[in-house]
Design brief:
Layout: H1 5-9, E1 12-16, H2 23-26, H3 33-38, H4 43-54, E2 58-65, E3 71-74, E4 81-86, H5 89-96, H6 106-109, H7 118-127, H8 135-145, E5 149-153, H9 158-170, E6 173-177, H10 187-198, E7 202-205, H11 208-218, E8 225-227, H12 242-249, E9 256-261, H13 266-269, H14 271-284, E10 290-295, H15 301-310, E11 316-319, H16 326-334, E12 338-341, H17 351-357, E13 362-365, H18 370-375, E14 382-385, H19 390-401, H20 404-422, H21 424-440
Helix pairs in contact: 4-21, 9-10, 14-19, 20-21
C-alpha cells in the first residue's frame, strides 16, 4: 500500500495491541475482524490513534492474528492502516496443547503434555508466549511502514520483550503503555523484562500507582516514565434528553438508574462485588424505583448468567452484548443517573470517561487508574471506595441515586473535567510531545 510524500514526512508510529493473537481479545466480546476494522472505535487503541493523528502523526496498527495470509486493511472510522500477520505455526501448535495460553502456572495452562515433568511443563509454559510473534514477517512489516516509534500495549507481556529486541536490532525507538495487563509471571520474563523496560524510550502510564511500581521494580530513567491518561473524543458524546432516551428503552421517567458497561470479566471487573452491592441497595430502599443497567459481553458471560439465574437480583437489567456503536452507548449513558465500576484491576479505563462525558457522576473502586480520575479533580466528580467492599459501594451508590441534585451537580463537574483533561487534543498534545522526544533521541544502554 503506497504513501504520499506528506505521509513520509509526518512522524509515524506503529502500535501493537495486546494479545498473542488479536482474536484473543475480540472473540470473548463477540466481535469479528471485519467489525474490528469497519466499526470499532473508542478504547485506548483508537483513542491513541485519533489523538496522535490530530497532531499530524501517521498511525499504523500491527496485529498478530489467526489469518492465513498477511494483509492490510484501513480502519474505517480513523483511516489508520491495520496490518494483520499470521501467527507462527510453532505457536499455533503449542496453543492447541494448552488449556489457557495466558495461565500463570504450567498446571492450569497444560493440556496434553503426556508424562513430561513439572520443570519441562513450566519451561514450555514460559517459552510459548515468546513464540507468538512472527519475527520475519514483523521485520518485513516494520521495514515497509518505517515507523519513528514502535508502541506496544502492555510492557508486562512477552511480545514487548520481543519487540524490544527487534527494535534495538533494527534501530527503531520503542515505547510501551499499560492498560491493565498482569505482572511478570515466568522466570524467563523476570530475567528479560528489566532490560526491556529500562531500554524503552518512553513508558506511557495513566496510573500514578502503576508508575511508582515500575520505578521501584525496574528502576528506569525517571524521565522516560510519563503519566498520560487515555484520551477520548468528547464530541462523540453530545448532550441528549434523558427522559426522551428513557422512553426508547422503556425505563420509567421517575426511576433512578445506575449503569455499568464493558467487558464481562467477573474478577478483574469486580462484577461479583457489584451484584452484591446492588442487592444491598435495593434491600435498604425497597420503596424506591432503582435500576442497575449492565451492558456488555465477554469471557465470563456464561458464569455471570448462571450466578444471576441461581439468585435473581431485583432491578438488574443486563443487555448482553458488546456494543461498538458509540451512538447507542451514548443513549444508554444519557438515560442513566450514575455510573458505577467495581474493578479490582484496571490500567486506565475509558468506560468511566465516556460516562463522565455524558454528564454522569461516577462511583468507582480504588483500582489503579480509577483513583486518579476522582482524586485529581478540582471539583467532586464522584465517589471512590475500596475494592472488594460491597457495603461501601452500596452506600456510595445510594448516596448519589437518592440525591438527584447532588448527582446532577457532580455530573456537570465530571463533564467539564473530561473536556479539560481527557480530550483528544489535551492527551494528543502530551503523547505527541513525548513520542516526539523518543523519535529524536536514541540512548544506547
Amino acid at each position: 500500500m503506497g504513501r504520499d510524500v506528506a505521509e513520509d514526512i509526518a512522524p509515524s508510529v506503529v502500535i501493537l495491541p495486546w494479545g498473542n493473537e488479536i482474536e484473543d481479545y475480540l472473540d470473548p466480546i463477540g466481535l469479528s475482524l471485519e467489525q474490528f476494522c469497519e466499526e470499532m472505535t473508542g478504547g485506548w487503541l483508537f483513542g491513541f490513534t485519533e489523538a496522535l493523528r490530530l497532531y499530524g502523526w501517521r498511525v499504523s496498527i500491527l496485529c498478530v492474528s489467526r489469518v492465513r495470509k498477511a494483509h492490510s486493511r484501513i480502519h474505517a472510522p480513523t483511516g489508520a492502516e491495520m496490518v494483520f500477520l499470521p501467527s507462527p505455526r510453532l505457536y499455533r501448535m503449542a496453543r492447541i496443547r494448552m488449556k489457557d495460553v495466558y495461565a500463570f502456572s504450567s498446571e492450569t495452562g497444560a493440556r496434553r503434555f503426556g508424562t513430561i515433568g513439572g520443570w519441562a511443563r513450566a519451561s514450555l509454559r514460559a517459552l510459548v508466549p515468546y513464540t507468538a510473534t512472527p519475527l520475519f514477517r514483523t521485520v518485513q512489516a516494520l521495514r515497509r511502514l518505517r515507523p519513528d516509534v514502535v508502541l506496544c500495549q502492555e510492557y508486562e507481556h512477552a511480545r514487548f520483550d520481543v519487540i524490544a529486541v527487534l527494535s534495538r536490532l533494527l534501530g527503531y525507538r520503542y515505547a510501551a503503555t499499560f492498560q491493565g495487563g498482569q505482572h511478570t509471571f515466568s522466570t524467563l520474563e523476570a530475567l528479560v523484562r528489566p532490560w526491556s523496560v529500562r531500554s524503552c524510550s518512553v513508558l506511557v502510564i495513566g496510573s500514578a500507582a502503576e508508575s511508582e511500581r515500575v520505578r521501584s521494580t525496574y528502576r528506569p530513567d525517571s524521565r522516560r516514565v510519563v503519566n498520560i491518561p487515555n484520551p477520548m473524543d468528547v464530541d462523540r458524546w453530545p448532550d441528549a434528553d434523558r427522559y426522551a432516551v428513557r422512553q426508547q428503552f422503556g425505563w420509567p421517567a421517575q426511576a433512578r438508574v445506575a449503569i455499568c458497561h464493558g467487558r464481562i470479566d467477573i474478577r478483574p471487573k469486580g462484577l461479583d462485588t457489584l451484584v452484591d452491592a446492588w442487592r444491598r441497595v435495593v434491600a435498604e430502599h425497597p420503596a424506591a424505583d432503582l435500576r442497575l443497567i449492565l451492558v456488555g459481553d465477554g469471557a465470563d458471560a456464561e458464569a455471570l448468567q448462571r450466578m444471576l439465574d441461581a439468585d435473581p437480583v431485583s432491578g438488574l437489567e443486563w443487555h448482553r452484548r458488546y456494543i461498538v456503536d458509540r451512538s447507542l452507548i451514548s443513549q444508554f449513558l444519557h438515560a442513566a443517573d450514575v455510573y458505577v465500576m467495581a474493578s479490582r484491576q484496571e490500567g486506565f479505563p475509558v468506560a468511566p470517561l465516556e460516562a463522565m462525558a455524558s454528564g454522569l457522576p461516577i462511583v468507582v473502586t480504588n483500582a489503579p487508574g480509577l483513583s486518579e480520575i476522582v482524586l485529581d479533580a478540582a471539583k467532586p466528580v464522584g465517589c471512590l471506595v475500596p475494592h472488594d467492599q460491597p457495603e461501601a459501594l452500596a452506600d456510595a451508590l445510594s448516596r448519589l441515586l437518592l440525591d438527584p441534585e447532588l448527582s446532577s451537580a457532580w455530573g456537570a463537574n465530571a463533564q467539564a473535567r473530561i473536556r479539560e483533561r481527557f480530550s483528544l487534543s489535551a492527551v494528543g498534545r502530551c503523547l505527541a510531545e513525548h513520542l516526539g522526544t523518543a523519535r529524536q533521541t536514541f540512548v544506547n544502554n
